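Entry:
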Amino acid sequence: MGTLFLDPIAFSIGGLKVHWYGLILGSAALVGLLLAVWEGKRFRIPQEFFMDLLLLGVPSAIIAARIYYVAFMWDDYKNNFWDVFKIWNGGIAIYGALIGAIICAVIFVRRRGYNFWRIADICAPGLIIGQMIGRWGNFVNQEAYGGPTTEEFLRNSLHLPSFIVNQMNVQGTFHHPTFLYESLWNLVGLMLLLILRRQKFLRSGELFASYFIWYSIGRFFIEALRTDSLAFQGAAWLASFVNGLWSPMTWFGFELGYLAPSYGNVRISQLLAIGIVIAAVIFIIVRRRTVSDLPYYSDPITSTKVAAVEVPGAVGNAEPVKVEPAKTTEEQPEVPEEKKE
């Protein structure tokens, strides 16, 4: 690092230092939760369900994200094992976080009796807004930035405020604010998801898949600007293929960020992004053609673990009303003969 314009320590309580990185990630999770709770009310899903999901999902995501990052950067940690746990210094891989969160969600949602894809659709906007906010943690830590650029480009071409331009000055060299590019990309994606989920044609699981498609497209192009990408040594044709797909960015004056040969020649996040986009498109097409009773996004959501029956006409987040089953013939009280007539 170096030439930090912003102090990564927000405040201290005694000997405990509270980092902006943690506060920003916590705020991102909270905003994502509120967005999911708000949409969940339309389907009469109690807010406690989403709160429990968050309490389990966030630790799972952080642990998986750290494992993912450390696995590809093991040479940097094998002689400093305790640094593995210093997540406040950065080193959280977003795809690792998604893997951890999805595994946790599949288990939790099914145990609560809900269909995973229906809940994933509700959570999709919360995920992308969480990523949009969370990227500012990288900004404060002065990490995940792009290749060199000029102060003039940042101030006069992008018209960025001074606090961003100054923070992008790393040891005397200005760099592309890739955190900002991704945050803005996610902001546009959030608006698209909010519009898309009100369309009548949308089926179960397709909003979640759309989130992955949108995010991965942006990540593919932004990742190549970075200088700290996780990478591996792949075949020459694979590296040429990936770089060829990215080449239209040069039309806008961007250049590939430097990738140390010791890391490899293929950025892992770029390759994952390509695979995810292809898989998500196939997922949507195949399900539409093979699942005859595929529910729409707007269809009611029910849990197989809830014994109560909701009375038609209930509104808001009202509690379900329990309806007693009809009594059998043996349980019906005897009616006097004169009453039967």
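The CA atoms of residues 276 and 282 lie 10 Å apart.
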